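Box 3.1 A note on notation
Throughout this textbook, protein chains are presented in two layers. The first layer is the amino acid sequence; the second is a token string describing backbone geometry. Keep the layers aligned when reading.
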Amino acid sequence: MDSSSDPIPLTRPLADLLLTWYSQSARALPWRDDPTPYRVWVSEMMLQQTRVETVLPYFERWMRRFPTLQALADASEQDVLQAWEGLGYYSRARNLLKAARQVMEQHGGQIPADEASLRQLPGIGRYTAGAIASIAFGKDAAALDGNIRRVLARIFNVSEPIDSPQGEQILWQLAAQNLPTGRAGDYNQALMDLGSSICVPRDPACLICPLASVCEARPLGLVNERPIKTPKPPVPHYLVVAAVIHQADKVLIARRPSKGLLGGLWEFPGGKVEAGESLPEALVREIQEELAAEITVEDAIGIFYHGYTHFKVTLHAFHCTLLSGTPTPLEASELRWVTPPELVDFPMGKLDRQISRCLVEGIEP
């Protein structure tokens, strides 16, 4: 870089190497093409724990449906959850809606530019605030997502577990110390791109890495041993049952409370199988507890599998008939009787959407 044309020359080798590479290799992404604060914020929320390739079609659809902050603030939770369906971690969608309304009410419709104000918005933590401030507003703010953590842990051979308090502190210090003044947005995005395309979790492409000459882990043969993470306990596995209760040409669905896992989404009622129960016994008990109704469990629909962040589920779904009682939402926020074709209009988690497709298309899971 020609320092004579830049009032703030880059003096840090890491930033210099990285930004030179980024100027030639940056990915073309829709939020980079038009980096308004709203678009950057939505992209960063979607990218939390989700790959860019997965986010791209969701981002484009979202922007068609909610092109402005005002449009999002005016939307219903159901519309927002439906637009988000399939991305997972649905609290992100609910937080986007809450934050949009908060910005309209407290900030005159203008997303705040400083990290402190950004962190007052629902769903925005230290990383997201730094990313938005640097990318959308040009602030000298550090950011630390999963890709950046991995890159920094290798470049500086961090021996502390990166998910420990000590490791976290070290990484934030490294992120801030190597931040090039006036180029933080590009620098943060360059680290993200490098971690996504070259410094990947397994077998990174060190031979073409622009930071190979400054990487401390590489000459020590420790690239695949970095980053270090704290060992996690075994992931629990739950056996779950769900009832597709029929009444004439309709089936019963329940809306989960807005807070908690899959909050605000619709599902077929049911729950966990307890020790010693058969699948039908568990389903009869769950419907009694959830709906104060009696059912007969009939043919199986299928077996469905899904892994959440902290547990795994095997779900058995059954056709059921209502015997007695009027279903009452004792645990759900709302109940609806709908025809199978209408199920597409109700946002659902992955497992319940698979069940609904079986009902609509008559297919096996």
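Residues 1-11 have pLDDT under 50 and may be disordered. The longest strand covers residues 294-307.
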